[in-house]
């Protein structure tokens, strides 16, 4: 009986655990993640629609702008 009770409690607790990495929204063409803070291996690029930071890994660089776009 105690094992059944322990199993039910464990299943209830595991059912309320939030998902891991899927909680972050993607940004910058799917390369970055919207977060409140960027990690040490990431750089802030711009704001996401929900006003959080779009964090990109340092290994990824934004594509270069065409020369005459903002002249």
Keywords, please?
about 70 residues, alpha+beta, four-stranded antiparallel beta sheet, rod-shaped, single chain
Give the SSE map.
Layout: H1 2-15, E1 25-27, E2 32-35, E3 42-47, E4 53-57
Antiparallel strand pairs: 1-2, 2-4, 3-4
Question: What does this molecule look like?
Answer:
The protein is an alpha+beta fold. It has a domain at about 20-60. The protein has one helix spanning about 1-15, and strands at about 25, 30-35, 40-45, 55.
Largest beta sheet: what is the strand line-up?
Answer: 1-2-4-3
List low-pLDDT spans. none
Number of strands: 4
Q: How does the helix and strand content classify structurally? A: alpha+beta
Distance between the first and last residues' Cα: 76 Å
Compute the number of helices: 1
Q: How is the main sheet built?
A: 4 strands, antiparallel
Helix content: 10-25%
Spatial extent as radius of gyration = 20 Å
Q: What characteristic shape results from the CA principal axes?
A: rod-shaped
Q: What sequence of helices (H) and strands (E) makes up the elements?
A: HEEEE
Oligomer kind: single chain
Residue share in β-strands: 25-35%
Averaged pLDDT: 79
